[in-house]
Write a structure and sequence with these properties.
The protein is mainly alpha-helical. Helices cover about 55% and strands about 10% of the residues. It is built from 6 helices and 2 strands; from the N terminus they run ααααββαα. The radius of gyration is 25 Å and the shape is elongated. The chain starts with 11 loop residues before the first helix and ends in a 9-residue tail after the last helix.
Length: about 140
């Protein structure tokens, strides 16, 4: 999977759908970081949400079984995406397709830019400075 974010940190997934939903931001963070489990505090930070917002929407994520608790570390519970959930499977698939499409769009734009950059560049100044050809009269 290719995961691409713009320089300001917004993921392509969120950019394409134009939504700033806390639930989507949490799911996006967890999709972009599948190798580990995270505490709620870490998820809030990674999703750029306040802890209050995270705690307000968290019951919805658990009730739809989109996230699962993996273990306890001290007093913290650790969570990750529930990859067995069919909705999560489709969201991950959609995230992959969106990322791949965006990556191919960027690659094609780079190819076009390079193609135009390698062509000779003629400006008006070049044309004005070029020697004028006298018409041939026979």
């Amino acid at each position: 999977m290719i995961s691409i974010a713009d320089p300001l940190g917004e993921s392509i997934f969120l950019k394409v759908f134009g939504m700033k939903s806390p639930v989507l931001k949490i799911l996006d963070f967890l999709m972009d970081n599948p190798g580990s489990d995270y505490s709620k505090t870490e998820i809030a930070q990674g999703a750029d949400l306040s802890r209050g917002t995270l705690f307000a929407v968290w019951p919805r994520l658990e009730s739809f079984e989109l996230v699962i608790m993996t273990r306890e570390v001290g007093r913290s519970r650790m969570y990750k995406l529930n990859k067995k959930n069919p909705v999560v499977k489709k969201l991950v698939e959609l995230d992959d397709v969106v990322s791949d499409f965006y990556a191919s769009t960027l690659i094609n734009a780079d190819i076009e830019t390079e193609k135009h950059a390698s062509e000779p560049h003629h400006s008006r100044i070049d044309e004005q400075l070029a020697p004028k050809k006298e018409p041939v009269v026979s």
